[in-house]
Records
---
Amino acid sequence: MSAQAVIDPAELDEVLARHPQGQPAGLVNLLHDLQAAFRYLPEQALERAAEHLGLSSAEVYGVATFYEGFHLKPRGEHICTVCMGTACHVRGAARLLEQAERDLAVRAGQTTPDLRFTLEQVNCVGACALGPLVILDGKYHGSMAPDRLSRLLGKLSDKKGSK
Ligand code: FES
């Protein structure tokens, strides 16, 4: 089952209203704001962005898919990123990823159907001395072990959603 997200049209209007119409140069900034509002770039938002700035859909999709930081699929409220770079890998990163996949019941690159968690893997974020490393909602957790990761994910999952 794939995760579904519903967009609030009023929120979309509100983000668009903060950006001047007919100014294609503002595209990247607008995409950043849309992603901040929805945690990803919904198709409807991309279409409205194109209209708003006077660009074609293809131009907007071209930029949205060019930058790795933009996401075209719904993302979870919590992002769990396991580093699978060499230094982390030799210290057991694969076991961490397996643990997270078991706990969240998704594979790397997927989002839970309730949109609470997205599980990702990266190849080295330049903090090898901390390995094996997991990044939870932007916070680095070094020397990670599967049971500790499980506890951290459990704590987040017990917390009430923000939306
Ligand atoms: S290999 Fe994980 S931070 Fe470098």
---
Amino acid sequence: MRFLLLLASLFASYAVSAQKINRLIRESEISRVLSALASDDMQGRKAPSPGLEKAAAFIAGEFRKAGLKPLDPSSASHLQSFSVNQFDLTSQEVLVNGQAVPKDALLCFPGSEQVNWDNRGAEIVRIMPGENAIQKLYGLIQDGKSYLVTADTSHRNQLARFRAFRAQRLDGSGTVVAVIGTDSVQSYQVNLAARKTARPYANVGAMIPGKKSDEVVVFSAHYDHLGIGKAKNQDSVFNGANDDASGTAAVIALAKYFRKIKKPERTLIFVAFTAEESGGYGSQYFSKRQDPAKVVAMFNIEMIGTDSKWGKNSAFITGYEKSDFGKLLQENLQGSAFRFEPDPYPDQNLFYRSDNATLARLGVPAHTISTSKMDSEPYYHTVDDEFETLDTKNMTEIIKAIALSSKGIVSGKQTPSRVLGE
Ligand SMILES: [Zn+2]
């Protein structure tokens, strides 16, 4: 009996919130924002490009109109600007155990114009046989420290293809040098010279100060995409409506929603990241300016414009089993038909492939919410990822479900467990 009463009261409170939310989160408004971001006018939002700058100005305008403060309250701008450096090697000389490493056994990703290591300056990491060499090396490049990486010859072909990859580096990032065919390192000397080109980038962010400034909840998505590419049926714009204008529209809708309801207990940050598609530099820059101990949770939203593999009213959460974040979200949805499911594509390593990864590596329950059918999404990374292909009604329901399910975390009643190592 008691159990039934409890359920009934939970249902009643869900029903009241659901009514209110229907007024505050509307499909017409989400379609307006989404269609603007995905329009040809934004030229596919490649980072960096004039089209992406247009998108940034549009997002900042939405935050400003809603009366939301910038990320940095002392700044007048919602843009979080920074530069990303590209280094083109002009000379390389690497000796390991006294032997010069031939060019075809070497991959260098410099983090400054001059690199000189003499048995110090880098942490030595080995890629083991059977490991995914590209994924490991890419992860090392992304984490921003200096590494001397050794890999045995079984990785040669895979790594050779990665040599053309032009790693971009945030200011202050280290250098990564990979040597193929060397097992153990007794000594090393590395001398690199590179030409630096700095490119301007910007995240767009807003915040709602909570009663607690030292407990932060982040809602995020990336607003960049692939730009303009090879034409198909005279269409050359990669509109990225689903990837990830849908997530960006969700972040804007959530910011407006939380601005209109009572002051939250925890401080809320809403951020649209740049340069996800080209290496995740926007989220890395943002994440390194957060104290991970203060970030209670991160709701990263990626591709929610199509129905999930389970149909409507459902979405999956990457890294579901790495914290109790998903379980807590679902607890707030008693009485709703909406379901959050574990990521059904674990082989794709989605948890570490999106903008939540930097904070997740530091222990933050930072997860990505998505509906994308990663094994069969027909328009993924094509010029056909257009506004018209999306289910905006279902998307609106997903955004409402995120708003309602985050209630306990926003109010400070729920605190998800931390994420433990990879
Ligand atoms: Zn994406």
